[in-house]
UniProtKB/TrEMBL annotation:
<dbReference type="InterPro" id="IPR029058">
    <property type="entry name" value="AB_hydrolase_fold"/>
</dbReference>
<dbReference type="GO" id="GO:0004497">
    <property type="term" value="F:monooxygenase activity"/>
</dbReference>
<dbReference type="Pfam" id="PF12146">
    <property type="entry name" value="Hydrolase_4"/>
</dbReference>
<keyword id="KW-0560">Oxidoreductase</keyword>
<dbReference type="InterPro" id="IPR050266">
    <property type="entry name" value="AB_hydrolase_sf"/>
</dbReference>
<keyword id="KW-0503">Monooxygenase</keyword>
<dbReference type="GO" id="GO:0016020">
    <property type="term" value="C:membrane"/>
</dbReference>
<feature type="domain" description="Serine aminopeptidase S33">
    <location>
        <begin position="22"/>
        <end position="132"/>
    </location>
</feature>
<dbReference type="InterPro" id="IPR022742">
    <property type="entry name" value="Hydrolase_4"/>
</dbReference>
<protein>
    <submittedName>
        <fullName>Nitrilotriacetate monooxygenase FMN-dependent oxidoreductase</fullName>
    </submittedName>
</protein>
Amino acid sequence: MERITFKNETGLTLVGHFYAAPSKAIIIMTHGFLSNKSSSGRFDRFALKLQQNGYNVLTYDCGGYGESDDTAIHFEKQVTDLRAAKQYSQQLGMEKFAFWGHSLGGRLSLTCYDTDIETMILTGPVTGAIAYQHVDNFSKEQVAQCESSGSMIFYVDDPWRTEIVLDKQMLLDFDQMDQAATLQKVNCPILIIHGTEGDLERELTQITKQGLDLFPKSTKLIELDGADHGFMEQLNEIETLGLHWLHEHFQLS
């Protein structure tokens, strides 16, 4: 694994980990809300296994997260970051691309689809509008601060930073996702993995099911019994499902 840096189109420096393999196929992994390139250890583990199976892997911190430059986060900024990660991968000589996204990283993956993306794996993805109050326990004081000052601060347990600044636009970004507009241009095989436990994960599952006809016909939805939004007790199963999917839909040659 190599620590790397690259810039997005606004000049923000983003930090990532690149796992090199002897192929031209790369999987770009995008973390969720208030997370980082490690994704609570999920991405570290998955990236190593994917590398052992011949895939290059890039994990990265969106702007305002982890080791990347500070900025108040909202969705369109993170779209710019994923596009920059893909461009950086192309500069490394990669020719085959797949996305792997967790939670909000799933929405980012869908939003940044292009015709050269061969497949996606999405765990607990945000695939449609969801009330921001359901995503995190925002207090009335935090929301009031956000409305008056334009941002709110989250204190996080992160090896690289102590706080993440949320732009008030992010509250609207959760509420205003147009599921049909996002999905109508996506045309690749997608593996979606949801859980059955916890209010947030159950709601995300229902949002995906409501829009399932909008996904490509090659989409497969798997519900893991007993899994909550973190999937921390199901990492073995997700790893196995992901590798099987990639071997079928993202061949190295």
